[in-house]
Amino acid sequence: MKIAVNNQLHLSEFRPSDKPALIECLNDRKIYDATFRIPFPYTDAEAFLARVAQAADQHGQPAHFAIRTSDDALIGGCGLNELEIGKSHRAEIGYWLAKPYWGRGFMSAVVSRLCQHAFEEFGLVKIIAHVVTHNPASARVLEKCGFVQEGLLRKHFLKDGQFIDVWLFAMLR
CATH no. for residue 123? Predict the structure, then answer.
């Protein structure tokens, strides 16, 4: 499956051959600090690839995608969590981008396209996102895509022994 984002980017399924690129891209403390599900140091791409393949089998189609350049290089990932096709009306979007590609508008284009795909293909009514309060760039991405901040969730996640405040954003169909 290939989903065109623009003339520079597309989304595709993750592949076993993505292991080295995943490890290289995700061994970045700044990505770890800005996300909830990506460990640091990042060493086990195999487990991630198995989880996304299992989710694709469960849903009958992918719910997590590799972000690729026009020459097919893996530069990030995005996906939908808490998704039960035909049962749930909402899902949580998550995303990351390799640091060399930050600040180019790529993630806004990807999030917008993934949300369109989710509403059309999965019949969702609501897509939510949690953003750590020390990551205003991610909040701006969501706002550019039409998400609205619904609230501040204090001490919502526990990471590295610290409670983390997050903003809750949502987009409705």
Answer: 3.40.630.30
- pLDDT for 30-76, tens place per residue? 999 988 889 889 988 999 999 999 988 988 889 999 999 999 999 99
Model confidence at 161, pLDDT cuts 50, 70, 90, reads very high
Residue 133 DSSP one-character state: T
Segments forming the whole domain that contains residue 167: 2-172
Domains: count for the chain: 1
Q: Where are the alpha helices (DSSP H) in 1-105?
A: 19-26, 29-34, 45-59
CA–centroid distance for 101 within its chain: 15
